[in-house]
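Run Methyltransferase type 12 through structure prediction, thanks.
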Amino acid sequence: MTDAAYLLVHGDREYLLEPGEEFGTDLGVLEIPDDVAGGDEIETHLGTVFEVRELRGPDLFNHLERTGAPMMPRDVGLVMGHTGVSGGDRVLDAGTGTGILSAYLGRAGAEVTTYEVDPEFADVARRNMETAGVADRVEVRTGDLSEELDALADDAEPFDVLTLDTGDAPDIVARAPELLVSGGYLAVYSPFVEGTREAVMAAREAGFEGVDTFETIQREMDYSDRGSRPSTAGVGHTGYLVFARAP
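Sure, done. The structure for Methyltransferase type 12 is below.
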């Protein structure tokens, strides 16, 4: 991976900083050495000690620059678990957004090509890949994947995994067998059930196997002296995930 940013932690304070950066806080000025490493301790000019931590996946979700609602960690976990993405895999992605999914995949060792139609969003995603330390594994392209399908289908090396978080996902799914290796995986994320159904129908018509759909709901637990129960804060729906395997 390329050089990544680090977390500087003191109690409940967390700052995302890069080697060589200087940052002022009410606890003093932090000066980050160029050779900083996880586990180091850095004192502000006022003597407050901060611990240096290497970034983990949840830190990326909490601290990367956002351009909208990013994919939640539980959704990312399902994508990685159901597709088995690992080192050396080639992943094609559309709907980069903030780049949370691409960053996770890159940190797992996959080589990711991801498309984002909004140039400003794409620029933010590129900066986020630098921060996450995966700019050498994740290529953020500005453009619409649906307009690049012919060129990509002619590529001599197909992809192992295709991940989609776009409104036109069903149209891309129809062409997906041309993009994937035999036995490769498709993952489609949608916040709406209508788009999910269209993706499922397109996957079936394209000959995909094992087409499954999951709604991702997560509830936190509350613990008190009175007892333990699921939180009443909400059911925690984020979206639907469709998984399928290329013929």
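DSSP finds seven helices and 15 strands in the chain.
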